[in-house]
Predict the 3D structure of the following.
Amino acid sequence: MSGVEWTFIKIVIGMLLILGFIAFNAILLGYGERKISGFIQGRLGPYAVGPHGSLQMMVDMVKLMTKQIITPKKADGFLFWTAPILSFMSVPVLFMVIPFSPSFTVINSGLGIVIILAFSGLNVLALCIGGLGSNNKWSLLGAARAVSQFIAFEVPILLVVLSITLMTGTLSLSEIISKQGGFPWQWNIVLQPIAFVIMFVASLAEMNRVPFDLPEGESELTAGYSTEYGGMGFGLFVLAEYTHIVVASSVITTLFLGGWKGPVFSGIWWFLLKMYILCFIILWIRWAFPRVRFDQLLNLSWKYLIPAGIFNLLATALLVKLF
Amino acid sequence: MATITKEIKEILKGIKSLFVGMKITGKYMIKPKVTVNYPWKTVGKEALEGFRMVIQLVPVPANGKSHKCIACGMCARSCPSNCIKLDVKQTVEEIELPDGKKKKKVNKNLEGFYVDFSLCSVCGLCVEVCPTKTLTFSNYPYIVGTTRNDFVYNILEDFNKRYGKE
Amino acid sequence: MELNTGYIAFALYTLIIIAGGILAIFSRSIIRSLIGLIVILFGVAGMYFLMAAPFMALMQVMIYVGAVVVLIFFAIMLTGVEGNEGFSSSRLIRSIIPAGLAALVLILTISGSRINFTSPEELPLKELGKSLLSTYMLPFELISIVLFIAMAGAVVLGFERRREKE
């Protein structure tokens, strides 16, 4: 078998595994979100289907899939259905470059982090198309908010990634991990604490999670860009959102928390452990904080995160040059 | 300079408040839950203390067979949503007073006490106003019905069924 | 073998670009035209991949699709342009002139340049950065100055607009 074919087969197998992983994570996070929200509010959460309600998400998936597909009469059907498909399509690519462990990497690209940055930007494009295509005022407002939020928070993420790149001298995710050690004080978070905070906050904003979920703020925009969607169209949006949580957690794990390296028995379990802890914190935040106002959101990015990011970048450049 | 230090203090305060919020919600996350898995488990009798359902007649003496309703109609008049209907049979009889005069006496006999619970706002005015303290709230919450008429209760009949005719 | 897959990929990307162009030109609504533009940009990104310049391709996706198109979307959203005009010959002639000029320049450039058919090699990113900061220092700095002027101009315009309102 020649090299090209082998790579192709590897990509196909990886793609299938990734799709399974995406579905598994959507179920896990959806269930986790309901349970955590229930626990924080002193409720039990889903309890009826399966032991402790663990099969609830399966039932929900069946419900979403079997729902009638409705296109609003005045909506642009082509754009309306392009949006959820585009939103979900970009997601598997993101997983391809994440190094779960030395052997569990689909593409070991030298440009890993750039691929993630490039393709996670397609999500906001999908929100835009969906918001404009559904011919609904809530959707339009949600899409407008999504765009300005995305543009504001893309900049600090780029600055942070740039400072990490300056420090490690590479754009490849697996090499960034290999430059870090197994113990917590050997991770990048010790050297770049400001960058870690900026990255975490900006990722929350990029994937429209609470407290930055203004594009879909239920109380003011009914459901924002996804107002007109039902059934699987909505399902794809939700799937993409949960997957973005996982991807953001994976990227933060890779950049700052040492990836698959741990004090003992380095391997994929350390990566998954760190990733799921971050996912848990992201879900927890949703039920802890209220939604910010829009001017506060933009101020946070332009007045605090970006100057802090630029300062961090300059300091990193100076220190890298000195030592 | 003063504004900058103030700003920084403000930021630090904000960051601290984030952790406080996380701590509080985290504490609630591991606390025992207050709700129960309803159709399979129900809250006990103590938890329903003070729960207001449709009004009921109080037996006298406790667990006795009779009630003290005098069919005065105060409850029906005080009800803001007009959901209480009394079915009163009036009989007039002449009685002789000890001093020889004759006087008409009106006997009010309660034949039915209808409460439309679909209109009731459980405000408690009828309970407050009852001169003989005969009304009180029941506290059995698990009710179900398919038509509106299912929620029109004849609480006199219920009383008789429960405690028996006097 | 290698060459054939290259040709197939080239044909595929060309088809994608042409299809996007057709969608952009012939669609009624301006948003659909924008979708056509996105398709073209993806096709061009594929071309960059074919020329062994993955960094350029990813930057194409990140900057053009992720930022420029999104900004155009934003502009359409705020202005609400309903491009439902029919076909008009005068508009066609007016648009042929700039398009023809661009095509002429492109043809002249291609015919005047030496084309060699060696298969492209991927350049390490460090080389790219080094040549940007040594050989192509002047154009690189000029581009940053142009961008800076554009940014400053946008800020000044925004302030003036606000002052007029007040």
Notes: The interface with chain C takes residues 4, 76, 78-79, 82, 109-111, 114-115, 117-119, 121-122, 124-125, 128-129, 131-133, 140, 143-144, 147-148, 150-151, 154, 171 of chain A (CB under 8 Å). Residues 187 and 258 of chain A are 5 Å apart (CA to CA).
